[in-house]
Design brief:
By secondary structure, the chain is mainly α. The chain has 18 helices and no strands.
C-alpha cells in the first residue's frame, strides 16, 4: 500500500519513461532533426544514447522498487550523459523531469521545483510554446505550483495554457467554417457533386484524426480548471472558468447526444458558478448536466445523483427549496427501488435532505431525516461505528435547537 501511495503521488510519472524509451530506443537524432528543433550543438561532447537509456531504465526500475538511493545515482548519471549531447536537448528535459520526480516523491520539493522548471523551458525552446507535449508539461508544473500554494506562479503558467487552448479552439472554428462554406458552395453547383462527396469524406477523416487529441486536451483543461477552482482569488477563478469553457466547447463539437463527457463538463462549470454564488448560471449548467446523465444512465446511477445533488444545492441556495426537495425525493424513491431501503445510497440522500432542511432552519425535519439515516448506518456498520455516533450527536443537537426555538417563541408571546 505504501508503495502505491508513493508512486501515485507524482504528477510526473517515472513509470511512463519506460514506455517512452520503447518508442525512442532505435532513434538517433541527426543534425537535420536538431536543426528542426532549433538546437545548437556546437562544441558538444560525444553523447552515448545507449548509455543514457541504460541509466534511465535502471533508475526507473529502482524508483518503482523504492530503491531511491540507487534511482538518484542512475538518474543523475543519465542527466550528466545528456549534457554531453547538447544544451537544451530533449534528452536532458527527460532526465531533469525524472530526477525532479524522485525528489518530489522523497519530499524534497525545493530540489524538485527548479528541475521541473528547467525541463519545461527546454521543451518550450525545442518544440515551441504551442506544442501539445509542451503544454502538457506546463499543466503538470502548474499542478505542482498549486500543491505548493505558489498560486501566483500557477496563475502565470495558466495564462500560457489558456492562450494555447484559445488558439486550438480557433483552429476548430476555422476547420468547421471551411467545411461549412465548401459544403454550401457545392450545394449550389450540382455539377460538383463528386467534389461534394469527397468533401464529406475529407471532413469525416479529419474529424476522426483530430478527435482523440482534442478530447485529451479537454481532460487536461478540466483537470487544471478544477485545480484553479480551489484557489479563492479572482484571477484563478477567471482562469478556471476559461479552462472549463474550453473543455466544454471541445466536447460539444465532438460528443453528441447524451454523452457523459458533456455532462461532466457542465457539472464542473456549474459547480464553479455555485462556489461563486452565481446561482442562476449554476442552475442552467447543472440542469443540463443532470438531464444528460438522467437520459444516459438513469436516475439510480451515482453519476446522475452527483449532478442532482449539485443542482439541488444551487436551487436551495437560490430559494427554490421545493424544487430542490422534489429532486431529492425522486432520487430517494429511485435508490430505494433499485438498491433497497437500507442502502448507502439512500443514506446519502437522507443526509443531503437533512443538510438542506438545517440550512433553512427547519431543525425538526432535519432531525427526522437524520433519524432515518441513523437506522441505515446502524444496519450497515453496526451500532458502535463512528458514523453512528456522529449522526446521533448531530440529530440531538438539532432537536435541542428546535426546542430552544420553541421556548424563545413562547417567551415572546
Amino acid at each position: 500500500m505504501r508503495r502505491k501511495l508513493l508512486i501515485g503521488y507524482n504528477f510526473f510519472y517515472i513509470g511512463l519513461v519506460l514506455g517512452y524509451l520503447m518508442k525512442r530506443i532505435s532513434i538517433t537524432l541527426t543534425s537535420l532533426s536538431m536543426a528542426f528543433f532549433g538546437l545548437s550543438c556546437s562544441g558538444a561532447l560525444a553523447f552515448d544514447e545507449a548509455k543514457w537509456q541504460g541509466h534511465t531504465q535502471a533508475g526507473a526500475a529502482a524508483f518503482q522498487d523504492m530503491r531511491y538511493g540507487e534511482a538518484l545515482k542512475e538518474f543523475s548519471s543519465a542527466l550528466e550523459e545528456s549534457k554531453n549531447k547538447c544544451n537544451n536537448d530533449l534528452f536532458q528535459a527527460i532526465s531533469l523531469t525524472n530526477l525532479g520526480t524522485l525528489h518530489q516523491t522523497r519530499g524534497n520539493l525545493d530540489k524538485a521545483q527548479p528541475l521541473f522548471e528547467q525541463a519545461v523551458r527546454i521543451r518550450q525552446k525545442a518544440l515551441g510554446p504551442f506544442n501539445t507535449e509542451v503544454v502538457d508539461s506546463v499543466a503538470k508544473l502548474s499542478h505542482f505550483y498549486i500543491a505548493r500554494k505558489e498560486f501566483a506562479k500557477a496563475e502565470a503558467v495558466g495564462e500560457q495554457i489558456i492562450g494555447f487552448g484559445e488558439a486550438r479552439n480557433k483552429e476548430l472554428d476555422a476547420m468547421n467554417s471551411g467545411f461549412k462554406n465548401l459544403s454550401s458552395f457545392y450545394a449550389k453547383h450540382p455539377n460538383l457533386k463528386d467534389a461534394s462527396t469527397l468533401l464529406e469524406k475529407a471532413k469525416t477523416i479529419t474529424e476522426s484524426k483530430v478527435k482523440s487529441e482534442y478530447l485529451d486536451l479537454a481532460v487536461m483543461f478540466d483537470s487544471l480548471g478544477t485545480a484553479y477552482r480551489g484557489i479563492k482569488d479572482d484571477k484563478a477563478q477567471s482562469e478556471a472558468e476559461k479552462l472549463y469553457k474550453m473543455a466544454l466547447n471541445i466536447r460539444e463539437r465532438f460528443l453528441h447526444g447524451n454523452h457523459l463527457g458533456l455532462s461532466s463538463s457542465l457539472e464542473n462549470l456549474g459547480k464553479l458558478y455555485q462556489g461563486q454564488g452565481q446561482h442562476e448560471k449554476a442552475i442552467a449548467c447543472l440542469q443540463r448536466a443532470y438531464d444528460i446523465s438522467l437520459k444516459s444512465v438513469g436516475m439510480s446511477h451515482p453519476q446522475t445523483y452527483s449532478k442532482l445533488d449539485a443542482l439541488a444545492i444551487s436551487l436551495s441556495n437560490s430559494g427554490k427549496t421545493e424544487a430542490a426537495e422534489s429532486l431529492y425525493k425522486q432520487a430517494l424513491a429511485s435508490f430505494e427501488k433499485s438498491h433497497g431501503q437500507n442502502s448507502g445510497y439512500v443514506a446519502s440522500v437522507l443526509e443531503s435532505l437533512a443538510n438542506m432542511k438545517e440550512s433553512h432552519g427547519h431543525h425538526v425535519e432535519a432531525a427526522h431525516y437524520l433519524s432515518r439515516e441513523l437506522k441505515i448506518k446502524q444496519h450497515l456498520n453496526g451500532p458502535h461505528h463512528a458514523s453512528v455516533s456522529e449522526i446521533t450527536e448531530k440529530r440531538n443537537y438539532l432537536l435541542k435547537q428546535s426546542q430552544g426555538a420553541v421556548k424563545t417563541k413562547t417567551k415572546e408571546i
